[in-house]
Structure formats: structure tokens, C-alpha cells
Amino acid sequence: MRIAPIEPGTRPELAEIEASIAQQRGRISPLYQVLLNSPPMAAGWEKMLTAVRRHNTLPDDVRELVIVRVAVLNHARFEYDAHVPIALKAGATQAKIDALDDDSRIGEGLSEAEQVLIELTDAMTRQLDVPDALYERVRALYDERQVVDAMVTIAAYNMVSRFLVALHIGH
Hints:
171 residues, mainly alpha, AhpD-like, 2 domains, 9 helices, peroxiredoxin activity, Carboxymuconolactone decarboxylase family protein, CMD-like
């Protein structure tokens, strides 16, 4: 890691934020240990990602497929390894997850609604711009709140993966 992680419990001034992170995540992962070097960023990050994960209108398995696809596109192994078990627990199949890792198999086993969100994920991650035709396909299948939730999920996990990769944060 390029920035040393902060061992939980070693700085009393971080106790409140560490407790909040542990309550939401069940542990303080290496990602959060690095973020604790900037307590305001760690606090804001935790609140944002908790909203993305726990107050999202997308089905849990679909949300996790989107996150796994972002991890694949950004070569964020830590993110991939963290979210595959969550995706499986949420009901995604291993075949769908495996297909996200191979551009020649994208779409295999996915519903039309899942497929269009994976295409949205690819567009937002690879080129930022979302073509009008793709956006219209997304809107035909999802209401406005779901579109916002999907786009925030994709954007947020691009932030996560880019932070992880840039700072060499792994297991």
C-alpha cells in the first residue's frame, strides 16, 4: 500500500468513526484503514457507500452485478473479491458473475434489465458519456429513482476501484 493503514483502536480520536464503519461493514477493511488517514473523507465515504448499498432501489443481486462489472473494468481485484460473495448471497449466479469477466460472454444468462445496466456500467466506466439510445433503453426498464440509484452505484464504485488501484490497496 502506498499509504499506511491505521490500525483500528490505536487513535482515540477515531473511535466514533471506527465504530460507525464497523457497525455498517462488520469490520474495518484495509480500504477503510487507509481512509482513516483523512477522518472527514472516511466519514463521508462510509455514509455514501452505505446509502449505495443499503438504500438502493435496484435489486441487491443486480446492484452487486453492476459493482462486480466496475471492478472487472477497472482491474480492482480487492473490490471484485469483496463483492462476489455479496453478489452470490444476494442471488446472483456464478455463471452471471463469470460472464462479467469476459467481454465475449457479456450478456450470457442476464435478463434484459440486467443486460442494459451492464451496458450502462460499461459506458459510464469506459467512456463516461452515455449514448442517448442506451439511456432510452435504461429508462424503458427503470423509473427515475432507479436510474439515479444505478448511476450513483456505478459512479461510486468507480471511485472505490480507482482509489483502491491508485493506492495499491489489497488484501
